[in-house]
Design brief:
The chain is of the alpha/beta class. About 45% of the residues lie in helices and about 10% in strands. A six-stranded mixed β-sheet has the order 1-11-10-9-12-13, sandwiched between helices. A four-stranded parallel β-sheet has the order 3-2-4-5, sandwiched between helices. Helix 4 links the parallel strand 2 and strand 3. Helix 14 packs parallel to helix 19 and helix 15 packs parallel to helix 16. It is globular. Bound molecules: iron/sulfur cluster. The site of iron/sulfur cluster (SF4) has 9 residues, from loops.
Length: about 500
């Protein structure tokens, strides 16, 4: 049964909705098998070094909407994640997406103080919404909750509804306080829940030439890919507009680059507005790219176009991929990334002839909101390329990650998030960080990525030197312990 209920303001967290977990050590095949029942069993931690917050995930989806403003209703420290979105917007938006008139990000905090936690912060929030509206003239204002405003019980939804009536534009409450979920990607779902509830309008006219693409801020490969099919992408939500989001219900279909990101929005658009989601995982690796184009062709009634695109692209890129395979044969690669993008990188590892030495992904969703089994890239990876040993679900616990990396000593670390590659460098292991996930998609993506891997392997002098002088903050004692030392026994179905 669908757990998307837009009649209530808060999204159901991933632990409950999808049975998601943040602690596991074993193999990919074992995890896939355990996930079939929907509850693979979470291994909680007796010690935790750090954690992520859902606010940053909700904020990255709403703060990059061109004409919106964001208010975090909480102590100012909860807004510390916001600065990176200005950077993302300015540094990544223009070169990759060619945004014509980039706007300044409009991000604010109600700066809750101790007295507000005693007397309540609702009036402060109402005043902040008024002021932000006057200062920014944004087309919509998003209000993000925090642990503090949730604990004191501020009625954010009512304040937003009253403000909406007063200023005459959408004021969207998003409930993403960090303590609510150990799976911080719940923040994506919270952001989308607010968008679908308050911004997406019922379709006026269905558009046969538009496909929603749920994505981050990577290169736009879709405009070119969709051209032969006679459709164009509606890229959501980074760099979209409030009006553009309102028309997402009119698209002929939805595709997503990553179900960790788009699971909820894709399913919500299908459930509420009948926009069908493509039924297979994103196009990473040759086999999955074949499937994806075929599914796209089927969805659009253009199977012949899909076959032609596959044929042409393979003719162009397979010889280059073959050359890369020769260079990379036998290279042991370790992957670290968010859940679904980790699976995508493991597909790429398989296709480029490397050996998957293991992986640390940040959480695991045993199923997705669409319920499509074909959307599960990890099970596809295991079937298409074989098992992955040393498969860890490790919620960015760096002490576990460094311990594992030190034991396995791969030839290269393939990472999706900044900061993590440092640990490989300290150990003298070449590391590759590719933040633009869309540049790795499709057949051409394999070539792009493979060339970068070759480059990183051939230029390892820096990390080799660095490792001779690096100070490891972890003691020899810890490095000799089993990396799962602080993981508890799995419960069949964790009560959250
Ligand atoms: S909402 Fe909670 S977890 Fe998130 S930054 Fe604020 S205090 Fe920390």
């Amino acid at each position: 049964m669908s757990q998307i209920d837009l009649s209530i303001p808060e999204v159901s967290i991933r632990e409950i909705r999808l049975g998601s977990i943040t602690g596991y050590q074993g193999t990919a095949e074992d995890l896939v098998e355990k996930s079939c029942c929907g509850h693979p069993g979470n291994r909680g931690r007796g010690f935790s070094q750090c954690a992520g917050c859902s606010i940053s995930k909700a904020a990255c989806m709403v703060s990059l909407i061109q004409d919106a403003a964001v208010i975090i209703h909480g102590p100012v420290g909860c807004s510390s994640c916001l600065h990176e979105f200005e950077f993302t917007y300015l540094v990544n938006a223009n070169p990759r997406r060619g945004i014509k008139d980039p706007t300044t990000r409009r991000m604010y905090s109600t700066n809750l103080k101790e007295t507000d936690t005693v007397y309540g912060g609702a009036r402060k929030l109402a005043a902040a919404i008024r002021e932000v509206n006057e200062r920014t003239e944004a087309s919509a204002i998003f209000v993000l909750s925090s642990c503090a405003s949730a604990i004191i019980g501020d009625d954010i939804e009512s304040v937003c509804d009253e403000a909406e009536a007063e200023i005459g534009k959408p004021v969207v409450a998003i409930f993403c306080e960090g303590f609510k979920s150990t799976v911080w990607t719940t923040g994506f779902d919270a952001g989308y829940h607010g968008i679908v509830r308050k911004l997406v309008k019922p379709p006026v006219q269905k558009r046969k030439d538009v496909i929603n693409v749920i994505n981050f801020w990577g290169s736009d490969v879709f405009t070119k890919w969709f051209e032969p099919f006679g459709v164009k992408p509606n890229l959501i939500t980074p760099f979209s507009t409030v009006d553009g989001l309102g028309h997402a219900s009119e698209a002929i279909a939805t595709v997503q680059i990553c179900p960790t990101l788009g699971s909820y929005l894709g399913a919500a658009l299908e459930q509420e507005f009948g926009v069908p989601e493509i039924k297979t995982a994103a196009p990473y690796g040759i086999i999955q790219t074949d499937r994806w184009f075929r599914e796209l062709g089927k969805l659009l009634g253009k199977e012949d176009v899909a076959e032609e695109v596959i044929h042409q692209k393979k003719e162009e890129y397979l010889p280059k991929i073959e050359e890369l395979r020769k260079k990379l044969k036998g290279v042991r690669a370790y992957v670290t990334a968010g859940s679904a993008h980790g699976h995508a990188l493991l597909n790429i590892v398989g296709d480029l002839g490397m050996e998957a030495a293991g992986a640390s992904v940040f959480h695991h969703d045993p199923k997705f909101d669409s319920g499509f089994e074909a959307a599960d890239l990890l099970s596809r990876r295991v079937k298409d390329y074989g098992d992955v040993p040393n498969y860890n679900v490790c919620s960015k616990q760096e002490f576990e990650f460094v311990n594992v990396l030190n034991r396995i000593r791969p030839d290269i670390l393939l990472a999706r998030h900044g900061g993590i590659t440092l640990w490989a460098a300290k150990l003298g292991i070449p590391a590759l960080l590719v933040e633009d996930e869309q540049a790795n998609m499709g057949y051409e993506g394999l070539v792009n990525y493979g060339e970068k891997v070759v480059d990183a392997l051939e230029n390892d002098e820096f990390v080799k030197n660095l490792s001779k002088h690096a100070i490891n903050p972890y003691t020899d004692w810890w490095m000799e312990q089993s990396p799962d030392m602080f993981l508890k026994e799995a419960k069949k179905k964790e009560v959250v």
